[in-house]
Structures are given as structure tokens and as C-alpha cells.
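Intended use. Records like the one below are meant for learning the mapping from a protein sequence to its folded structure. Do not use them to infer anything beyond what is encoded.
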Amino acid sequence: MTTVHVSANDRQDYGYQWWRQDFACGSSTVSVWHMSGNGGNKVAVLPEIGLAVVITAQLYGTQGMHEQTSEILEDFVLAATSACGG
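Structure written out for the chain above:
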């Protein structure tokens, strides 16, 4: 499931039901494998820094729902970890 099968766009690759995306982590980036569901729900695994994150949201059928939880992951969760300088 975490083998890239399709390059979806410049920022994301796709395995089987899992997306791979690089997120800002301090002055570098960290590779994140995540599942995204309706409403913006996200389950993310970051093996490089030994972290798993679950974000629940209720933006069902709303434009930008996935982008919002990606921003939460990057701007708040990753920014607060010691691996990313927090």
C-alpha cells in the first residue's frame, strides 16, 4: 500500500488507498503517507520521525477540506514536534 503506483501531481503520489506527500518539517521536508476521507479526516504515518497522527474533521463535501487538514498537520502538529524544530 505504500509503494507508489501513480504520480498524482507535483506534490502527491498514490499507493493503494494511501497518498504520499512531502510536508515542511523545520528547514527540510518529511515524507508522509496518509489516508484522506470525506470531511477532511486524515490518518497520517511519518516513519522518518516515528509519528502517527489522526485528524478528524466535519467539512463533509466542502471544497478545501483536505487542504485544511494538511495545513493543520504541517502548521501545528509537525511544527510542534522536536524532529521539526518545535
